[in-house]
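Appendix B, record 7
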Amino acid sequence: MQHLIKDITSFIKSKPPHFFQFKVIRGEFTGFFKGDHIELDYKKDLVQSVVHECLHALNPKLSETKIIKLEKQVFREITNLQVACILLELSKKIKYNEIHQSFYKRS
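Structure tokens (predicted):
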């Protein structure tokens, strides 16, 4: 399972900033993998959402049930430091994306 946690962190690092988008998502969903980007609701559990959606992106053929099972396995083994690394990489992408969106809105 540790390799999967490293894969998620590497996946986040490898994607351009606009791949991760903050949205307010209505209903019980906390995120969506849409093929060319991941939408995350910042008002809900961000760590669980990004792990879940990255698992979809890394394993697009797996069913929702299998992704949830894999997510639970990840969270049984993930360390605080690994969560911090995931959040750090994600926050870099989101910050860059939000700064550039603000810049383009002003132009």
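Remarks on this record: The two ends are 45 Å apart (CA to CA). Helices lie at 2-14, 46-58, 64-77, 80-106.
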